[in-house]
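Standup, Tuesday
Yesterday: got the pipeline producing structure tokens again.
Today: sanity-check two examples.
Blockers: none.

Example 1:
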Amino acid sequence: MGKRGTARKLTRWCNIKALPGATRLLKHLRSNGVPTALASNSPRSNIEAKISCHQGWKESFSAIVGGDEVEKGKPSPDIFLEAAKRMNATPSNCLVIEDSLPGITAGKAAGMHVIAVPSIPKKTAEFSSADVVINSLLDVRPEKWGLPPFNDWIEDTLPIEPWFISGPVIKGFGRGSKVLGIPTANLPAENFSDVVSEYTSGVYFGWAGLSTRGTYKMVMSVGWNPYFDNTEKTVEPWLLHNFGEDFYGEELRLAIVGYIRPEANFPSLESLIERIQEDGRIAEKALDLPMYAKYKDSPYLRNTLQLGSTNDDSQAELNSK
């Protein structure tokens, strides 16, 4: 491949965003002196080119092993055993984080502990050979493996880089709301599927601005509704305010500022309602903290903006607070 082709490939790689929580996890392990290796079936040169797109990643790894440096790639254990060797680590003391079945098979064959983060939606059962299956890298709990815990959780919430979406309410305070006791508001997810696809499924929280009513505390579910065979993630905000009436068709603007928990299935409607109400209590309390409360005054929530986009002036005002 010529220089021009290589440059085009590097540009494509650098346009791919890291998985939510990846940079956070690497920074945490590095700051706590935990040796970390990157082992991939890709050629070593490709691996190094890809991680060069993310600041601080290359320095975070004690070892990098490419598929061209071992006899057999995944699902063979060779690549993980070589990584352990280069870190001077005993395989049984190593923890593998994988998103593919061949990788999980390789990690277990190497005698290592394996966390699976499935790259394929709704395929959790297929990854059951892993020690643990989690929803995303945001849900890694290092302390469960004898590693230093994260210290960035605040009042049972994880601050995230704020993101903003908006759209007309296509269902609000309907039958489901009366059962849950919380005004829900479905938005047309297809209008901002590109934005939502960048965020892991789970329960988030923040502020909701209704065009004719004001700004309210909000909890939001992002994910695949188990009652429908939908191929796209659904977005269901729950406004923590008792309106007592429908708000169909109103413009709803959301500022999502934190994460609470992964998407989960519940054995009964009662247990689902109990968990939703707990999510609401967590969000109510957290949104009174200055770090979250400041976004209530976001210009984004006061103005009608282009769907799924941020406003430079709005963001500038937020950053100055």
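Example 2:
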Amino acid sequence: MKKKGLFISFEGGEGAGKTTVIREAQEHLTSQGMLCVVTREPGGVDIAEEIRAVILDVNHTLMDERTEALLYAAARRQHLVEKVIPALSQGDIVICDRFIDSSLAYQGYARGLGIDNVLEINRFAISDCMPDLTIWLDIDPKVGLGRINHNNQREVNRLDMESIKFHDRVREGYRILHTKFPKRIHRIDAEQSPAKVAQDVKKVLEQWL
């Protein structure tokens, strides 16, 4: 697929503050006259949102790890063909809250399925449509989960219920991916003040644009 636009994904553990940072990034780019499409994974379109509800349902604790990985890949495929690819094809900037790196960190590394195995599943789902730029909001899981516990407006999902050891492994998975894809993935310290995080993200965006 030939992309006219720019595909930016935001990654991070639970409570990293992606929603706030993405909103500020969108406002920054829009203020410069750029057309931005903001979306999320899993979800973004009706079919993918329904898959999201199945994956994150707190009652689905018996879900097999491979089932989980396949459901994420299926939602990703539908999201791509319905929303992401059309936007990129017309030259928009697509900002996505999570993409393939979440599957690699959560299912590939933290679940123990293997990063390469999960990458192969997702190669089938996405073909060659990888993000041009990925911003990883790195945060200590204890800090991130603490933020979630104090946020009464955020709905708790099945992944929030995992052990701290699981979330530590997710963070380690992101560290491995950062080393594996250093040109694409940029680390931001998400434990800084919100203003400093936003400033660091804007610097990365300006370097790319």
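Quick observation on example 2: The beta strands are 6-12, 36-40, 93-97, 133-138, 185-189. The CA atoms of residues 115 and 173 lie 8 Å apart.
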